[in-house]
Write a structure and sequence with these properties.
GFO_IDH_MocA-like_dom, nucleotide binding, 13 helices, alpha/beta, Gfo/Idh/MocA-like_OxRdtase_N, 6-stranded parallel sheet, Rossmann fold, about 400 residues, 10-stranded mixed sheet, Oxidoreductase domain protein, Gfo/Idh/MocA_oxidrdct_glycsds, single chain
Length: about 400
Amino acid sequence: MAAFTQRREFLKQAGLVGSLGSAAMIAGLPESAMALGGVASTVVEDALQPSQTEEAPKYHIKFAVCGMSHDHIYGMIGAVQRGGGELVAAWGGEDDKLAAFRKRFPDAKIVKTQDEILDDPSVQLVLTSQIASERAGIAVRAMKRGKDFLSDKPGMTTLEQLSDVRRTIAETKRVYAILYSELLEVKAAVYAGELVRQGAIGKVIQTINIAPHQIFQRAGDAGGSSGRPDWFWNPEQYGGILCDIGSHQVDQFLFYTGSTQAEVVESQIANVRHPDHPHFQDFGDMVLRGDRGFGYVRLDWFTPYGVGTWGDGRLFILGTEGYMELRKYTNIAVSHQGNNLFVVDGKQARYIDCNAMPLPFGPQFVADIVNRTHMAQNPDEALLAAELVIKAQKNAQWVTLKD
């Protein structure tokens, strides 16, 4: 649970622990929300308000990109830059991705080979969102050449790759992390973790993650705004639905329950509506059992355009004294605003707007590189999440539904 303590300290310095800023705005709620069964209920609406302006980065490092197959690379770069990272070079294997990258970062040097980055002594950190099945190999080569490493999820797609990464971390002592952005880069998820740490809903019993996705997106950096490449449809390259997008959700299960040991009880996958890509998986789910809690994850590629975003991601956290719901990217049919957190306990029901929440991962991760620490992410937890989703994928039952 050390990660909780470290993140709490970051939030405390930002002036957000123990305070929800403005007073409750109950007068603006509908009458039906004020009285249930004739008894006045305590329904509170809060908005996090930072007590101080965001501080300038404490540290400075130079980093480079070695693979940009997925547009998640832009969020990864943004996180490191918030921590004081300077982007100095990039390599990419796809011409269209390189062209878009040049427009965003005209000052970054574009190199012709991966080795030009891995052999550059000035580069301290390497980032990759290369084709998923190739990420672990780049990580191992980078760490063996003295670089710290940040991978897009999933960091690896096979147990053999996972073993190679674990062994290389142990041998080289490099800092390695996987940017599970649905936890680390979602403000409501960060603040939910703080409330869990405070004991706001008692002991966490279970997490339920509903993670719908949209294949062809109309905008943004979630990956499909310019269509999907060939490797997206090939499970040997993207890892399969449970390994790929499921890695986000299993990471959250481990983080919120505090489980350090866990197993996949059952998992299943299907291709329901993509006959042109017979090996693609557009639905999957899994049941998890940890030493400190339970988990359920549902994944799909069926988000309709009417939702207004790439996916109506939901997280439910059940505790012994209450529960939470996170509506991460939209509040469906109410508002397109994301970072909505709902908390219910024995005294009240709260809605918390988390959009003013700071994101600690970037500054903490850069500090880890400078100080050789692990504040931003517990590496054992990150790799356990990877192990669980690979096993879930490997052992999943393929289900064929009748029309």
